[in-house]
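Supplementary Text 2. Reproducibility record for the structural model of the 248-residue chain.

All settings were left at their defaults, and a single model was retained for analysis rather than an ensemble. We include the record here because the model underlies the residue-level annotations in Supplementary Table 4.
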Amino acid sequence: MIYFVGAGSGDVELITVKGKRLLEEASLVVYVGSLVNPALLEYCRPDCEKVDSARLTLEEIIALLCARREDETVVRLHTGDPSLYGAIAEQMRLLDERGRAYQIVPGVSSMSAAAAALKAEFTPPGVSQSVIISRRAGRTAVPEKESIPSLASHGASMVLFLSAGMLKDLCRELIEGGYPPDTPAAVVYKASWPDEEIVRGSLCDISEKAQHITKTALVLVGDFLKGGVERSRLYDPGFSHGYREAEK
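Retained model, structure tokens:
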């Protein structure tokens, strides 16, 4: 069986129990060498073949995965959660065409690790109840209706992948879309890795403060970075729900 495994955000202890078990069982691991923490490969058994896919084409990756028997455990090791910018749709399509069975094991996304590093909640009551996950157009196009100014018009909490190298233009477009210039912003480089770095600021100065960070980073924008001021209804003594009656 072929398994797409989310390796977590970088910290080797953030891989799921299932993901770790599959690495221990695998006879072949094809990993994203430019992004995956190499320490994760220490979970593999001594005779496991480990292949870095950084220089491989899609077809070469699929050929490697399909060369093993159906009864072997084969792991395609991605960073974070493979459902976010993991380029797994095209891999699954080719596996479907070849009639090969596969499963997906979700992981801890870098956006979750970044929020943890910032000690932030994306959805504090009275601030934002929506999170927009997107990226600025670069070599990979973005649909016009998903342009940064269009998304910024909602004023929701925002997490931007693959955009740190275009930070000045990104901030300009976010302001054009409706965020006030003093909206809090943060850049988190390699969230949960030993060399993690956090830069905080606002849309009017974050591009200058974080100009040395150009890749392997997330940009987070929104008033959620200030923290919430309203209480959650969940723990409000005056609010009833299925497990507790409101105090009189």
